[in-house]
Design brief:
five-stranded antiparallel beta sheet; DNA-directed RNA polymerase subunit alpha; Gyrase A, domain 2; RNAP_asu_C; four-stranded antiparallel beta sheet; DNA-directed RNA polymerase activity; DNA binding; about 30% helix; single chain; alpha+beta; about 300 residues; DNA polymerase, domain 1; RNA Polymerase Alpha Subunit, Chain A, domain 2
């Protein structure tokens, strides 16, 4: 096998949204091993931001139209899905779109709070035909990973429309493996990666983050005892002592939405102790339970001094 110190990672070209990187020389077969692994992580596991909900003044559901607006509400929502943002905090952020016609409404018309950046400000969202037309919409923006379906964020509030959210900042990844040589030996691999992003992150940063995610997972396999010790340390540092009374506390006392409390009860989760002993994957399988629902429960627990890693 080749000495790892001989492997070189070079940048052939990079802009804000495109990067071409070469990794060589690699032992035969490792070009596809690394290329496929990095591609999968780049497309599915990097964090990003997206609009997840919209509430439009005068609109009760998405299968309708708004007076004076050229596009129907479904088209407007599809355009909102294309808005690419950067938000610095983990908590959901509320943005407002408040415009009057006649006007070509663009992403730059969305009001922005401190630290939030819209990278495709010239994206056309809709068109308002005349001076009588008006569009007022409250938008919720969140950070996340991968693709999240609107069904995971159903709301009981009338007029709130959940949106399918593509959080991934990576648009496309191509990789190519060619033969290369070291001295007289010609059976080494040369891996070329082409990464296209939405301009919310540089391709080189995306590549480093993907590599870090893979390294962290391989470390768990290599040193499972070290990982278990780390988790135990983090848990003890973050969680207070849980008394029997706290564990037996009903989830109803957390002041959760009735729909959420009922969903947990159907899954036989009625107390704080029940919730803490349940795996996140099992929670996600329950009806009406999604990332936002889990975050809401954990926020309520946090208010009581119970932090979950």
């Amino acid at each position: 096998m080749i000495d790892l110190s001989q492997i070189n990672v070079s940048t052939e070209k990079e802009t804000q949204d495109f990067g071409k990187f070469v990794i060589d020389p690699l032992d035969q077969g490792y070009g596809h091993t690394l290329g496929n692994s990095l591609r999968r992580v780049l497309l599915t596991s990097l964090p990003g931001a997206a609009i997840t909900q919209v509430k439009i003044s005068g609109v009760r559901h998405q299968f309708t139209s708004l007076a004076g607006m050229s596009e129907d509400i479904v088209e407007f929502i599809l355009n909102l899905k294309k808005v690419r943002l950067i938000i610095p905090q983990d908590k959901p952020v509320k943005l407002i779109l408040d415009v009057k016609g006649p006007k070509e409404v663009k992403a730059k018309d969305i009001s922005k709070t401190s630290g939030i950046k819209i990278v495709n400000e010239d994206l056309i969202l809709t068109n308002l035909a005349d001076s009588k037309s008006k569009l007022t919409a409250n938008l919720i923006v969140e950070n996340g990973t991968g693709y999240s379906l609107a069904d995971e964020r159903k709301s009981d509030e009338i007029g709130v429309i959940p949106i399918d959210a593509n959080f991934s900042p990576v648009v496309k990844v191509n990789y190519q493996v060619e033969a290369t040589r070291v001295g007289r030996v010609t059976n080494f691999d040369k891996l070329t990666l082409e990464i296209t992003t939405d301009r919310t992150t540089k391709p080189s940063d995306a590549l480093k983050k993907a590599a870090k995610i893979l390294v962290d997972h391989f470390t768990i396999i290599e040193e499972p005892q070290l990982n278990a010790k780390k988790q135990k340390t983090e848990k003890s540092a973050e969680s207070p002592k849980l008394t029997e009374d706290v564990l037996k506390t009903s989830l109803e006392e957390l002041d959760l939405p009735v729909r959420l409390t009922n969903s947990l009860r159907v899954g036989k989760i009625e107390t704080i102790g029940d919730y803490l002993s349940c795996d996140n994957k099992d929670l996600m399988k329950m009806k009406n339970m999604g990332p936002k629902s889990v975050s809401l429960v954990e926020e309520k627990l946090k208010e009581r001094g119970i932090k979950i890693k």
